[in-house]
Specification:
Elements: H1 16-33, H2 38-52, H3 61-70, E1 74-77, E2 80-83, H4 85-100, E3 112-116, E4 122-128, H5 140-151, E5 163-170, E6 173-180, H6 193-210, E7 215-221, E8 225-228, H7 245-257, E9 263-270, E10 276-278, E11 284-286, H8 293-308, E12 311-317, H9 322-335, E13 338-341, H10 347-359
Parallel strand pairs: 6-7, 6-9, 9-12, 12-13
Antiparallel strand pairs: 1-2, 3-5, 4-5, 7-8, 10-11
Length: 364
């Protein structure tokens, strides 16, 4: 008969550095919700501390703020704290980690394609040497063997003897992220912009860190479209705008037209049907009720133009409004792109799975 003796469970105490890391991650998430306002985010941390006890005698609030300054995440300007470039990078890194904790095991990284060509991953297959092949990829055993079979051990290497390993072709891609900043992204008390921003931050960090040869651009669209720097993403906020999807796609097409990459794609994160366009006189035409044929047809023309220029559009809907679903299904058919119906919780999973998948395809 076994006897068990139970004692009180004492959780392992975290080190000071581990506690600081947890607090840094919490602040990163709060900064997304406060659109990069450091002072407001710190006030929320004080509020959480009063409710849940974030700080103690060993690590107090003042010490935490000093540590943020010491590590270069924030800096004091006159009477307020400002987010530094390093702080913005930390938000992207934390967003990337959070998104990837929810991803399922699947495709590997490094964006290899199923095609042979220039790359870093050596394959077992070989082929005859061609001018321009890297010397590091020569299969010396097979090369010398070819010479011996022809001349015996009194061999003389010739150009036709050389064999090189095949390597996987690594491709590059130009991507435009289109982020909807219309008023509906915070309508009826539901925050849709913060999860969408978190995904965009994570995607940008993924590309910057793992795929430095890729191009990445960010376009915001509301009544109109505007191109902004990736570094400005934490500070993006929703405005009193309608949804001019055509303007967003048009700007993405203009940007990608200048790219030398063969692979071109646009990721559009939206929660609403198109409700605005500029008419031929430059006036903003609005209609928020249903699907206005005038607005829809002009927007679909833009999707077809993207298809002709081999730009794939992947649309990620953060709601399943019937009007939006109907429009996106038509847009996807016209562009021969992709559409994803997702909740706010799994938006990140769909974005990243699709990105890696798309990088494994070659556009002819």
């Amino acid at each position: 008969m076994f006897e068990f003796q139970y004692t009180r469970y004492l959780p392992e105490e975290k080190t000071l550095q581990e506690r600081l890391e947890e607090l840094f991650r919490l602040l990163s998430q709060l900064l997304i919700y406060t659109n990069g306002d450091v002072d407001e985010a710190l006030k929320w941390m004080q509020y959480i501390d009063r409710r849940n006890g974030l700080f103690d005698e060993e690590l107090g609030y003042e010490e935490f703020v000093k540590e943020l300054e010491k590590q270069g995440y924030i800096k004091r300007e006159e009477t307020a704290f400002k987010l530094t470039e390093k702080g913005g990078r930390r938000i992207r890194e934390d967003s990337l980690k959070q998104i990837f904790t929810s991803l399922k095991k699947g495709l590997g990284g490094s964006h290899e394609t199923p095609f042979h060509g220039e790359g870093v991953e050596r394959l077992s297959e070989t082929r005859p040497y061609r001018f321009g092949d890297q010397a590091a990829n020569i299969d010396f055993t097979l090369t010398i063997g070819n010479a011996i079979r022809r001349d015996g051990f009194d061999m003389h290497l010739k150009e036709e003897d050389f064999e090189v390993y095949e390597v996987e072709h690594n491709t590059s891609c130009a991507t435009v992220m289109l982020l909807d900043i219309s008023h509906s992204m915070i309508l009826y008390g539901e925050d849709r912009i913060s999860p969408a921003k978190r995904v965009a931050l994570a995607l940008s960090e993924l590309i910057i860190r793992k795929y430095p040869k890729d191009e990445l651009h960010l376009v915001l669209f509301g009544d109109d479209a505007q191109r902004v720097a990736i570094e400005a993403l934490p500070f993006v906020s929703v405005g009193p705008y309608h949804t001019n999807t055509k303007a967003g796609l048009s700007m993405a097409r203009t940007i990608l037209k200048k790219s030398r990459n063969v692979n071109k794609q646009a990721f559009m994160i939206t929660d609403g049907k198109p409700s605005a366009i500029y008419d031929r006189n430059g006036r903003l035409y609005l209609n928020s009720f249903g699907l206005d044929p005038k607005i829809v047809n002009r927007t679909l023309d833009e999707a077809i133009a993207c298809r002709r220029e081999k730009i794939t559009i992947s649309t990620f809907m953060v709601t399943q409004d019937p009007y939006l679903v109907r429009f996106v299904e038509t847009l996807t058919e016209m562009n021969r792109g992709r559409a994803y119906y997702s909740s706010l919780d799994n938006l990140g999973e769909y974005i990243f799975v699709d990105y890696v998948r798309n990088r494994r395809r070659r556009v002819n």
